[in-house]
Amino acid sequence: MEKGKILSEKKIGLVLSGGGVRGMAHIGVIKAMNEFGLNAEIVSGSSVGALVGALYANETPIMDMLRFFKETPLFKYNFLSIGKAGFLDTDRYEDIFKTYFPHNSFEGLQRELFVVATNLEKGEELFIHQGELIKPLLASAALPPVFSPVDYKGNLYADGGIMNNFPLEPIRDKVDFVIGSNVSIVSELNKKNLTNSLQLTGRVTGLMIYAINREKIKSCDLVIEPKSLEHIGILDRKGIEKAYAIGYENASRQLEKYLA
Prior knowledge:
Elements: H1 3-8, E1 12-16, H2 24-35, E2 40-46, H3 48-57, H4 62-71, H5 94-100, E3 112-119, E4 124-128, H6 134-140, E5 150-152, E6 155-158, E7 177-181, H7 197-218, E8 222-224, H8 240-259
Parallel strand pairs: 1-2, 1-7, 2-3, 7-8
Antiparallel strand pairs: 3-4, 3-6, 5-6
Helix pairs in contact: 2-3, 2-4, 2-8
Protein name: Phospholipase
GO molecular function: hydrolase activity
Active site: 47 (nucleophile), 159 (proton acceptor)
């Protein structure tokens, strides 16, 4: 039996990291998986990975996934936060999400989904996989200080990537084969790109996030981790199509090589 057929018969899990606009590469990975006949039964995501994971679990077509991110306004003056921490009021995005997830429940999805969010008050991560869907999605993607924390079940939650940017834990023992898509890339950097405090802070944060999650990423059966994503800014909406193309091309090559 050829390797591709063996893999397609296994129970596949998909882990999607955080990483802002670079997360559009996840959509490219899903497109490549579809073309190779691979279906993930369980998905786990953090931050933008939670959003892409939810769209995938909802059987949203690839082009509609991209449309979701292109049409969701990142900065709107009437979304500015008043009386809340964060520049933008995350709750204002709820109506936009309802057009894609009208059932607003994990149970209404076609695949099992886990998302992770950070409890800011208790300093704990929370894996959510049942009940209300939209609030946990907003919480998981609420990157400080851009987006305000989300009040969920009486506590304030923010970006899942703060404590767990690669949430392998909920699915590791539930599947036979894990595909990991990591877009929080750390590659070698020239010292000319470390000349100011902002660049230094970004580099240090990136290294810390990668160090915390490195062993989990390496433990996946197949890892898609395109290094060229590092040149796309986390909040650079112009990079949406580019990141998607990079993810698709990299995943196609990786899958072709693995299944050869």
